[in-house]
Design goal:
This protein is of the alpha+beta class. It has four helices and four strands.
Length: 268
Amino acid sequence: MNKAMIQNAVRSGFVIGLFGLSSCQDEAQVRSLGDQIRGLETIQAQAKAEMGRLQLQMKAVQAERDKLKAERDKLQSQMDEAAKALEAIRKDFSDYKAQYKVSIRKRAPGMELEMVEIDGKKFERVKIRELTESNLTFMHQAGTMSVPLNRLNPSLQTRLGFEQAVPVMAVNKANAPITQGVGLDEQLEEADYEVVRLNGQLGNMKRALAEENNLVQSAILGGNSDPTLHRHAAAALQVRINEGEVALAQLLKRKAQLEAKVKGKERR
């Protein structure tokens, strides 16, 4: 074999080696790309499954929101109807109270009361002489006496058609006391006083309500008197109690606001 033949053989072997090496690299790349594709396909499948799960959750949440909205709308409608009914009842009751006041003043002269208590002193089996907007005049064993209606016990006040305004702190649109030039401490002290006073009045009215309810039951069971008057008195007391409890809730809210302002001022 001459030199040229040897060179050609060596050259051919080198080319074959290069081709073999290139083929191995291509196969490795193909395998790597295949692994990447399969990994991406797995990720895509997982993403599709997660998307499906999230879509189901969104549908469930939307259904729950629709259900809650329907319940809220229904509740709002019921509240609106109840508010209208309550307003109508209040108007009817206000009309009744006005008529009752006129009626009781006409019927009061000559009416006998089992007992009238004034400042702890009891007058038994008294007879009414006159009932006005603000005073009661009656005869008792020792003579005649005139007394302001606001000194009578709440039960008798209601029976005679007298109502005292429930005390409520005057507030402006910003829910702040109208009193000018009064510091936070003084406002808080005033709120405390009003809460205590209103609680006391509510307690008295609740005891009077229990007394009227007992009188209703006694009249029904005894059958010797008409319970209608006591029922009306109990209804009037219940309305005043409800109004007083609303006023108390407002006072407590106002007191909490004042306490927060006082603490904020102290921290500064």
